[in-house]
Amino acid sequence: MKPIYVLNGPNLNRLGKREPAIYGTTTLAEVEQLCRGAAGTRPLEFRQTNSEEALINWVHEAIDEGAGIIINPAAFTFTSIALLDALKMFEGPVIEFHISNIHRREAIYHRSYVSMRADVVMAGLGAEGYATAVQSLLRLLERQGGETASATP
């Protein structure tokens, strides 16, 4: 069974400390546990980087080895055509995820390059919404490829 990739961009390693009024107090380690719990028996690659190059390389890895991608590209959402180009090569489902509702924030956060490829965009659910994203991706995989969802109820 191919893994799902949960990829996180810059500054998300500071969750729990960074602007808690916007991002909450949940840490990235806690987010990972939420994702693993939601994935059930499905293998899950959970990663975070402050490097655009690393994020793109992980998308390339997912192209060869992954079933689906959940990506919170953070600031790269609004700046990286290279990330968009990498995601366009991925044939499985892609969920773009943001902890905050980017459309209620400053105008610089309103144009997402990643949305041009994403099958689903989720924003504003808070850090706990990652679990919802994992469950949604499992359902997409089940519908698209006949795979059985392996999440726990």
CATH architecture: 3-Layer(aba) Sandwich
Q: Average the pLDDT over all residues and give the rounded result.
A: 92
Provide the CATH topology. Rossmann fold
Task: Please tally the β strands and state the result.
Answer: 5
Nearest-angstrom radius of gyration? Answer: 14 Å
Q: How many separate structural domains?
A: 1
Number of helices: 5
Return the CATH class: Alpha Beta
Query: Into which percentage range does the β-strand content fall?
Result: 15-25%
Main sheet properties:
5 strands, parallel
Would you give an account of this structure?
The protein has 153 residues and is an alpha/beta fold. It has one domain: 3-Layer(aba) Sandwich (Rossmann fold), CATH 3.40.50.9100. 36% of the residues lie in helices and 16% in strands. It has helices at 20-23, 28-39, 52-65, 81-88, 129-145, and strands spanning 4-8, 44-48, 68-72, 94-98, 120-123. The chain has a 5-stranded parallel beta sheet with strand order 2-1-3-4-5, with helices on both faces. Helix 3 packs parallel to helix 4 (81-88).
